[in-house]
TrEMBL record:
Organism the protein comes from: Brevibacillus fluminis
Keyword Kinase tagged: yes
The name this protein goes by in its record: Fructoselysine 6-kinase
Pfam families tied to this protein: PfkB (PF00294)
Keyword vocabulary terms for this entry: Kinase, Transferase
Alphabetical list of InterPro entries matching this protein: PfkB_Carbo_kinase (IPR050306), PfkB_dom (IPR011611), Ribokinase-like (IPR029056)
UniProt-listed Gene3D superfamilies: 3.40.1190.20
Top-level taxonomy: Bacteria, Bacillati, Bacillota, Bacilli, Bacillales
Length: 279
């Protein structure tokens, strides 16, 4: 599999430990895909500060292609994480840093580059408007998209027509609300719609039925990135099975099971995937 994460990158600044770790939905996808054996690349926008250099050094060390990334003077994106009543919670950030003022805008060379991949993944934090999603769709390469928990029905209706698989964080919804949300994403254009719900597991909808996956139980070191890990393992397992024509009706359940196992493993290191340095 050859896959591309296109969009956000940040450093997650852990205020309570004085450490920072590479992260971001699109970037995490690329790193987790590489861990799972895929050929992975990342396309995004970097600042020119210490945080940006650290992320670039880590991606180069991991063997992830960053040749189509942009850099601009200024502060790289960061998110601040603190320990509140025993739970790690996001408490601040700079809204993408330089990416906010210099968002990724795809040109002809970018689109030609994208055609070598089998999946492109982006997110709601990537500052990609529907015009950019339409450009990606024009390449013929399927797009997956993480709406996180920052979505409303209008946004799903607007963006799902460009998205092969939608990922939504739905831990704040009850089961009936989760199902209705997934139905809306599917009706709006996404053949697959996947909701992650933290300790309640995940639910997938393919337009015909709902599939439920319980989480694998571990004693977590850090749950940051678990949703990204879950999705990456799910979509790679699913697309690999389709590519090898192994879909006998069990591919979606087995892909969800593989996702739960990988997400549990991702909870056993600090940050999304380690590689922390002092703030």
């Amino acid at each position: 599999m050859k896959v591309l994460g296109a969009g956000d990158n940040v450093v997650d600044q852990y205020i309570h430990t004085g450490m920072m770790y590479p992260g971001g939905n699109a970037l995490n996808f690329s790193v987790y895909a590489k861990q799972l054996g895929a050929h992975a690349a990342y396309m995004g926008v970097f600042g020119d500060d210490r945080a940006a250099r650290h992320i670039q050094d880590v991606l180069t060390q991991l063997g992830i292609d960053i040749s189509r990334c942009r850099s601009h003077p200024g502060e790289n994106g960061y998110a601040q994480v603190n320990l509140v009543d025993g739970d790690r919670v996001f408490v601040g950030g700079n809204k993408g840093g330089v990416q906010h003022d210099h968002p990724l805008r795809l040109d002809g060379d970018d689109l030609q580059y994208m055609k070598q991949f089998e999946l492109i993944h982006s997110s709601c934090y990537s500052d990609l408007g529907t015009a950019e999603l339409a450009k990606i769709q024009s390449t013929g390469i399927p797009l997956s998209y993480d709406f996180s928990s920052d979505w409303d029905p209008r946004e799903l209706e607007e963006r799902c027509p460009y998205v092969f698989c939608s990922l939504l964080s739905c831990g704040h919804l009850d089961d009936s609300e989760v199902q209705e949300t997934l139905r809306l994403a599917h009706r709006s254009g996404s053949p697959l719609a996947l909701a992650t719900m933290g300790s309640r597991g995940a639910v997938l909808y393919d337009g015909e039925r709902f599939y439920r996956q319980e989480p694998h139980k571990v004693v977590p070191v850090d749950t940051l990135g678990a949703g990204d890990a879950f999705f990456t393992a799910f979509i790679l397992h699913y697309l690999s099975g389709k590519k090898e024509q192994q879909d006998d009706g069990t591919l979606l359940p087995s892909s969800l099971a593989a996702a739960a196992q990988f997400a549990a493993q991702a909870c056993l290191c600090d940050g999304a995937f380690g590689h922390g340095i002092a703030l």
